[in-house]
Amino acid sequence: MKPRAVLARAGRLIVQHPFTTGVTLLILVLALVTGPLRGPHRPLRGWVGAGAIQLIDGHWWSPFTAVLFTDDLFELIVVLILTVALVGVSERLMGTWRTALAFFGTAAVGIVVGAIVQVVANNVGELWARNVHGLLVLDVFTAIGGTIMTASAFAGTLWRRRIRVITLLVAIMYLLYSGLPSDLYRLLAVLTGLGLGPLLRQTRVTGGWLRSSHHEVRVLLASALTITALGPVIGLLGSTRYGLLSPIGLLFSNEAPSATTVVERCQAFAVTRACFRDLTLERINGLGPVLLSVLPLLLLLVAAYGLLRGRRFAVWLAVAVNGLLALLSALYYGILPIASTRPVVSPRYWEVTIILALSTLVPLAMAILLVVYRRHFTVLPSMRAVRRYVLLLIGTGVGLVGLYVLVGWLQKDTGFTRPVEVGDLLADVLERFVPVSFLRREPVEYLPTTPLATIVYHNIGTVFWIVAILGAIPAVLGRGLRRRPGDDASHVRELLHRGGGDAISFMATWPGNSYWFDPIGGGAIAYRVEGRVALTTGGPFGARGPHDGAIQGFARFCDDNGWIPVFYSVDAHYTPLFERLGWSTMTVAEETVIRPQLWATTGKKWQDVRSSINRAQRAGIRSEWTSFAALPLTTTVQLSDISEQWVAEKDLPEMGFTLGGLDELRDPEVRLMLAVDEHGRVEAVTSWLPTFRDGIVVGWTLDFMRRRPDSINGVMEFLIAEAATRMKEDGIEFMSLSAAPLAHTAATPEDDKDTMDRLLGFLSSSLEPVYGFRSLLKFKQKFQPELHPLIMAYPDPVALPAIGIALVRAYLPELSVAQAATFVRGRS
């Protein structure tokens, strides 16, 4: 971009964001004038800073001036970046005067209320308030946090939720692990912004927790796990160092004393604060103990990455590590004492008890959240991968314990500050795997004195956690994992490439399916069991027809397992076979098929499609035929936003079964057709599932359809028309616009309707206001498609209630009882 264009663009941004520009320049100028390296000096610092004492002394202006100054150069750089980014976004969302009000208003409320809390707590003798009573606060982050939280009310559903969750978590973690008055003020400002935003917007914002797709739940939980894992680092980097990693900070101030001196001075009944400090210094004397305190947190970060990828393995890994940290906190901080010799928190200092209890509750709460929402992580590990990892940890742990005991026994007379026995070594060895921050209240029986004993004493725990991290990485990255229980994914894809299936056969690769393989014909049937009903995902695939033997074989297989076989969304040409078997059939959908080689948009019937194409072209929108893996990160983020906006604004959860979501777009054989404007903004997206014959793609089936709420009218018609043109050029035989579930044009006489017809009609009518299946079918008819009826076949009409429930569970696996009740009331 030319310099003149850059300047012009910068000028437009300044004009569009006057408050952001003004406050950024004000912060920068004040820092340069008063001291950019170390902040303003006294007495100016006491005049502009905020705090309980300042407000008591009548410095009413301090809540406003305290959010305009910084403490050092690094903070100044971070503040300038965040002000431009976050305050700028806030001003774009809610305008200039609202942003100014939020910036200074939330900060003022947070500081004033926080100071009142400090004064009241100090008057009643609360320990924390006494310690921080005289501290001054210069903190721009208080105003930034309150501003972005206020602006969240003006954001879309997706970003509103993300902003609120992440901002609150960060503010809470700072309060828990740093504990400065500024951290309290910042949290109160954020909460003030949470209430101020809806008032400024003056339109109703849904107060309840809107539903999320699997993808968004993964993003939020991964973010929460990352923030809680990094929380102790806040204490390490901060001046207060109240966090679980605070002992590591001692390494940066003093050298460790000798082991002999420490043990001589710190005998039983003579333990002082200085003694605790020296014990901690000696325990973390060396790289190994420092790493031992950090590595469990790194393992949590590995698990957080696995959560983003939907790995159930990562869920249980994070639950195990958080559960272990909670147990260690409760045990070693005296909350759950199991031995009378372990010091217990004195009831005189109830504040300390609360702080230590929080160190237990934070990881425990994270573990509980992961267990509750584990269903959103659908990529399941193979038992072989889990077994391999567990055996690796057990083998490594036993081997390191044996090494410790062996080395200790060989040097029992010379390697430690006193002679040791095997019993002493076994009693001490487990603590070698525990982060040293948990051991600062533990009495020390002996310490190593020789190089070999020191290496083993300080490093076996480090080796164990490194092995735990390295062993978890393959599972998190996908090796040794399977997407479904009990299947052979590679064999299924081989059969799909062979062909012989229908337009939705590729949905067999989706999570949740199990497979029956035909031992005679060589084909397969994908199915899922809901209750005692086995619902197929389309018909047989992987072998040329007829499929009579496969259908009958699968029916026998289901009967042997006590299941009711139901062939769902299969082609109507199977009807004679099911009639011979004595089964009942009914039309559940109509597939809309286009022949690309006959594609043309001439004639009056195509007027709407032509208008949509012309409108998109005039708006500068182009089509892009690609795959998910080929997209840059900025584009994948846009797809996530478009999808989540659609999901979050529905009154019911995201549907599954024969309806794919964002995760299904990632398959390397799936193709995407994007509508992209001149600035690279994705306006809409469609995904296309392949149909093969002898390894060659002969057809594509439309699956995923999402568009931005503010995109131009007709963008979907434009995308489908572009896809048809592309397929015509590629020589594709058919293009299926798929079938809208529970929607078709075939009329059933009222007298002929059975219970299932009425139930499916009820479901179709009920879901129409939310998902618009009938409207979708009407939309697809714009393209003059062939209509191919799809049927459901079932052997026993008595089982119709169970089949209806199974269909609801398959399409809406996350439907709660409350949602179901609301759903039914809405139709009554």
From TrEMBL:
Topology within the bilayer: Multi-pass membrane protein
Keywords: Cell membrane, Membrane, Transmembrane, Transmembrane helix
Any matching Pfam family: LPG_synthase_C
InterPro entries tied to this protein: Acyl_CoA_acyltransferase (IPR016181), LPG_synthase_C (IPR024320), PG_lysyltransferase (IPR051211)
Localization: Cell membrane
Span of the signal peptide: none
Keyword RNA-binding included in the entry's annotation: no
Principal cellular location given in the protein's record: membrane
Record-annotated membrane-spanning stretches: 12-33, 73-89, 101-121, 133-155, 162-178, 184-200, 220-244, 286-308, 315-334, 354-373, 389-410, 455-477
Keyword Cytoplasm: no
Phosphatidylglycerol lysyltransferase C-terminal domain sequence ranges: 494-794
Protein name as catalogued: DUF2156 domain-containing protein
Native source species: Leifsonia virtsii
Organism ancestry: Bacteria, Bacillati, Actinomycetota, Actinomycetes, Micrococcales
